[in-house]
Amino acid sequence: MKKNKYIFLFASVLASPFFVSCNEDSIDKVNAPIAYEAIGGYESSDDVAAANLVTKFSFENSIADSKNGITGGVGTNVTYGNGIKGMAYKGSSSSFIAYNAVASSLVDVKSITVSMWINTNPHTGGAQSLFMLPKTTDFWGNIFSLIEGTSPATTMLVKNHVQKDVMPSIAWSGQFIEHGGTNVLTNMFGKWKHVVWTYSGASSTYSMYIDGQKLDLPASISKRYASDPLTGGVGYGDLANSNVSKFIIGGFQQHLGTPWGAPDGWMLNYTGMMDEFRIYNAALSDNEVVALFKLEKDNR
């Protein structure tokens, strides 16, 4: 009987809460999520140049800027679809988002990076505006990106624009940085593409990246000088936005009404999809752009 008693006591100890607790801890350790490997030194897309991020639109069934640099948004015929990371803005021939207020953090940028994912198809009849930072005293506004209708339909002609006023004799207004001709973009339609362009006020240089790959651009595009830099040309220097009023995604400033006139017939709303639209107040480095592309693609 004593032997059986000892066996019973030993079995009771094995079944005690103490041992059960240890087993649960072991199970938790086995099932614990494995940490993601850092990409470019970053764990999350929001870690990339975090101090320089001034606006961010993720379009998670919302038109809000999570950085609050652009506020007072009103959507017109806005819908959403599946994006590269969660939900995405889904444009149409009549869709756009108008914002009433723009913070100084965006107005006063001296250098810039614009980053977004787009998924669109060829179009005809004019230029579709991805976004625009308007200017009340200028037909072309301050900063924008356009997609031109092109032929053949397999190529994408993109125009980016920045406002400059470095000296009284130099007004970088109504001029474009154009990806056309031999620099037209290919394989851009029918799938999600990560598009980034940067301008550095310090070096007066422009860069463009597609899916993390930096384009090899000629000096006529990448060097933003008033005249040939090899002969002492002066760089355009810092950006100089002025007379800023409102902000628009998916349309031109002319779609916002007064003080602008009605949009011209070629001014088209963006009909594709857009996701993870970001603006930074610095020209991101190659490593930062690659990390941003990979992290967002990985839903991070």
UniProtKB/TrEMBL annotation:
Its signal peptide is 1-21
The answer to keyword Metal-binding applying to this record is no
PROSITE patterns per the record?
PROKAR_LIPOPROTEIN
State the InterPro entries in the record.
ConA-like_dom_sf
What name does the UniProt record give this protein? Answer: LamG domain-containing protein
Alphabetized, the UniProt keywords read: Signal
Organism from which the protein derives: Flavobacterium algoritolerans
Q: Does the keyword Nucleus apply?
A: no
